[in-house]
Each structure stands twice: as C-alpha cells, then as structure tokens.
Amino acid sequence: MQKRVTYFILIITTIIIGLISRHFTFIPLFIGDILWGTMVYFICRFLFIDKKTKFVVLISLLFCFCIEFSQLYKAPWIDSLRHTLFGRLVLGDTFLWGGLLSYLVGILIGVVVDKLIKSTNNT
Questions:
Q1: Arithmetic mean of pLDDT over the chain
Q2: How far apart are CA 86 and CA 34, in angstroms?
Q3: Is pLDDT of 14 > 80?
Q4: Which CA distances in Å does 115 have to 63, 74, 109, 112, 119?
C-alpha cells in the first residue's frame, strides 16, 4: 500500500508541475510532453506495482505513442474533444515526431526516479 501512495503522490506532483509549466512562456513546450511521459510512467507503475521495470516502460511507451499517433486521425467528433482543455491535455492536438522523443525522455526520467525511490527504501 505504501508503494502505491508514493506513486500516487508522484502522479499528482507531476500533474501540478506540468500545469504550472504551461503558464510560463520561457519554459519550452516540449517540457509538457516530457512531464506527460513521466506521469504516464508513474500511472503505469501505480497500476502494475509488482511488474518489472521493462514491462512498465513498454506499456508506458505503447500508451504514449498510441496517443501521439492518434493525433493523425482527424474526425469532427474527436477534433471537437481535442479543442476542450481536458481533450488537449490528455489527447493533444497536433502530431509531432519530437513528441515521441519527449515521451521517451519523460519515461526515462520516471525510471530514474523509480530506481532512486527503490534504492532509498532498501537502505
């Protein structure tokens, strides 16, 4: 239970940092995608608490990449959803190859934080 609480706190913290980063014009836009990838990793770790890191990384990458590639699909119903705040934050609105790289970086940050947490809990 304690592990899940830790990941829940990391999820909420990452969301807050991501939302705050959107209000400062000097912060590059790709930081949001990096934080989004990190958040997805923490959510997957929360859901698959006892799975190996490789599994969680794979699930996180698949989810992030599916969301990014889904932005290539254009239909009125999903475009109208993407024009809402929730839709823009969750689904995004424009496909960018750089988004895929940003998600990978974010997930790697999540792995590093995960390893740091595990190493401090083992000492």
A1: 91
A2: 18
A3: yes
A4: 21, 39, 10, 5, 6
CB-based contact 30:102 (threshold 8 Å): yes
Residue the block writes with tokens 């940050």: 109
pTM value?
Answer: 0.90
Range of the domain at 118: 2-122
Q: Which residue has the tokens 């990838």?
A: 37
Fill in the amino acid letter for 123: T
92's torsion region: left (phi>0), alpha (psi -120 to 50) or beta?
A: left
Helix ranges (H only) for 71-96 are: 76-82, 85-91
pLDDT tens profile 58-76:
999 999 999 999 999 988 9
The residue among 66, 72, 63 whose CA lies nearest residue 93 is: 72
CA neighbor of 78 nearest in space, from 29, 32, 88, 40: 88
Number of independent structural domains in the chain: 1
Cα separation values, 53 from 9, 29, 101, 110, Å:
19, 28, 19, 10
Pick from 85, 112, 101: which is nearest to 19 by CA? Answer: 85
Number of helices (H) and strands (E), helices first, in the chain? 6, 0
